[in-house]
């Protein structure tokens, strides 16, 4: 099956091709036809299975672009809101789609202005409900998507979600996506959906079993040192380092090259010619390390990447799955390494829960351990090296000046001097410290959610006439 089988608009097909999507994922194969015929739907699928495109593509195909907000997507976190909004914009850019992202901690007036010009709104529950209750916005979407519903339940947003739906029209198409189906989510689905189609994509593990996944805990100021140390120790044949921002890609490429590594940057501000040249250099081995943003790395098809490094852990599980999927291809083994600070532990635990596979915590090797490993590797290389006639001639010339033992030590010193270790002896947290930080993060996540102070005793009303008391 290909995306052309869905008979999507030519502008959408152009964006799909540019995004590097080859064929529909299982959730896309099942969900897109159901959504296109106008049915409500409950989709059970783990993050990393292509859920965003599964609902975005058919909705984009059905938009009338009449100057109103036609689609509303509700997600649990600010980071996911940004990512989903970017993805929808990217898939709909040749249709001229405008999206608005709504979340707390940002200017009300700016967000309200964006909503006024948008066809698609992606919002977190708290800020969206604030805007609806205060009468600052009124939405009449034809399509409503509730994404990561179980995550919103875990974060204590269920009452907010129910209240939001009292402000939405009944004549809408509603889609609910959730990795798990606890009773509360089943009951919510019963209340907000009409005769929905149920689709379940079960997968024991979202990530490739050939990929070994590790994380190392560092302080923020130690990221650069930690990355160099791990590259030195792991000695990857071909690696991709993922960053969040374009400016970070450029800085890190300059930094790694200054340390004697052969790195190239890849991000969205590059011209197509530069992008193609960079990818070609990486594929052919003219560059050993590619530093890239998530968007720039979409569609990369390079089978011999041995290591993926997350300079920052991504904001959401889907990005994590896409990133580490660049290695462990074509049946080969791969290694995925993430640098994490203590402040990112809750994020780490959510990713681990969503992808269904364990990330192993490790200590960053010390400078001494790196030296010892390099010495052993050098010794193995020397012992396996065939002796050339030119080498015999050179040693004979040197032997006329000094004894053979001194010749060997001078040659070894020459090699070692070209590859010095970077950074202090000890970088990052110990295993004991990591275990303690993990326990703290787990305790915090398991605490009961505090009430958000909403008035949720008004009953669940899903009709438009009952909303008059909320308008100014």
The CATH class of the largest domain is identified as Alpha Beta
What is the CATH architecture assignment of the largest domain? 3-Layer(aba) Sandwich
Bulk shape: elongated
What is the β-strand count?
A: 14
Low-pLDDT segments: 450-472
Main sheet makeup:
7 strands, parallel
In round numbers, the mean pLDDT is 85
Name the helicity range: 40-55%
Walk me through this protein's architecture.
With 472 residues, the chain is an alpha/beta fold. It folds into two domains: 3-203, P-loop containing nucleotide triphosphate hydrolases (Rossmann fold, 3-Layer(aba) Sandwich); 211-364 and 427-446, P-loop containing nucleotide triphosphate hydrolases (Rossmann fold), CATH 3.40.50. The protein has helices at 10-19, 26-36, 51-62, 78-91, 108-116, 125-133, 149-154, 158-165, 183-192, 223-234, 246-258, 272-284, 317-324, 345-355, 367-384, 389-399, 404-417, 431-446, and strands spanning 41-45, 71-74, 99-102, 120-123, 143-146, 173-178, 197-201, 211-217, 239-242, 263-266, 289-292, 307-310, 334-340, 360-362. The strands form two sheets. It has a seven-stranded parallel sheet with strand order 3-4-2-5-6-1-7, with helices on both faces. Strands 10-11-9-12-13-8-14 form a seven-stranded parallel sheet, with helices on both faces. α12 (272-284) links the parallel β10 (263-266) and β11 (289-292). The radius of gyration is 27 Å and the shape is elongated. Residues 450-472 have low confidence and may be disordered.
């Amino acid at each position: 099956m290909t995306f052309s089988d869905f008979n999507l608009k030519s502008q959408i097909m152009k964006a799909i091709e540019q995004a590097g999507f080859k064929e529909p994922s299982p959730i896309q194969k099942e969900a897109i036809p159901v959504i296109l015929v106008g049915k409500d739907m409950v989709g059970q699928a783990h993050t990393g299975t292509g859920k965003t495109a599964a609902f975005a593509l058919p909705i984009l195909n059905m938009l009338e672009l009449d100057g109103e907000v036609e689609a509303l997507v509700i997600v649990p976190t600010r980071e996911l809101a940004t990512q989903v909004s970017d993805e929808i914009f990217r898939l709909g850019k040749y249709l001229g789609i405008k999206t608005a992202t709504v979340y707390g901690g940002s200017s009300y007036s700016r967000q309200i202005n964006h909503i006024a010009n948008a066809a698609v709104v992606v919002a977190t529950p708290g800020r969206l409900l604030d805007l609806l209750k205060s009468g600052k916005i009124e939405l009449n979407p034809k399509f409503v998507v509730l994404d990561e519903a179980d995550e919103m339940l875990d974060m204590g947003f269920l009452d907010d979600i129910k209240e939001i739906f009292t402000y939405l029209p009944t004549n809408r198409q509603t889609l609910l996506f959730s990795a798990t189906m606890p009773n509360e989510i089943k009951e919510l689905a019963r209340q907000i959906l009409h005769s929905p189609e149920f689709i379940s994509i079960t997968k024991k593990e979202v990530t490739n079993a050939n990929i070994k996944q590790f994380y190392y805990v560092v302080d923020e100021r130690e990221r650069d040192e930690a990355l160099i140390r791990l590259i030195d120790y792991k000695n990857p044949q071909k690696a991709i380092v993922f960053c969040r921002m374009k400016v970070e890609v450029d800085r890190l490429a300059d930094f790694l090259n200054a340390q004697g590594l052969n790195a190239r940057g890849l991000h969205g501000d590059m011209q197509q010619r530069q992008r193609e040249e960079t990818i070609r250099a990486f594929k052919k081995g003219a560059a050993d390390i590619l530093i890239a943003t998530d968007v720039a790395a979409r569609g990369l098809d390079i089978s011999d990447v041995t290591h993926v490094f997350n300079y920052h852990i991504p904001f959401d599980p889907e990005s994590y799955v896409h990133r580490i999927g660049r290695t462990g291809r074509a049946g080969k083994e791969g290694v995925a390494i993430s640098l994490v600070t203590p402040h990112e532990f809750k994020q780490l635990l959510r990713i681990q829960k969503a992808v269904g596979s364990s990330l192993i915590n490790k200590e960053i090797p010390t400078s001494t351990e790196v030296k010892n490993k390099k010495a052993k590797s050098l010794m193995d290389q020397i012992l396996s090296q065939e002796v050339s006639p030119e080498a015999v001639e050179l040693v004979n010339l040197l032997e006329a000046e000094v004894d053979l033992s001194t010749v060997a030590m001078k040659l070894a010193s020459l090699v070692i001097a070209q590859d010095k270790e970077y950074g202090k002896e000890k970088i990052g947290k110990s295993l004991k410290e990591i275990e303690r930080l993990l326990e703290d993060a787990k305790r915090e996540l398991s605490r009961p959610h505090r009430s958000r102070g909403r008035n949720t005793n008004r009953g669940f009303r899903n009709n438009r006439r009952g909303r008059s008391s909320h308008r100014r």
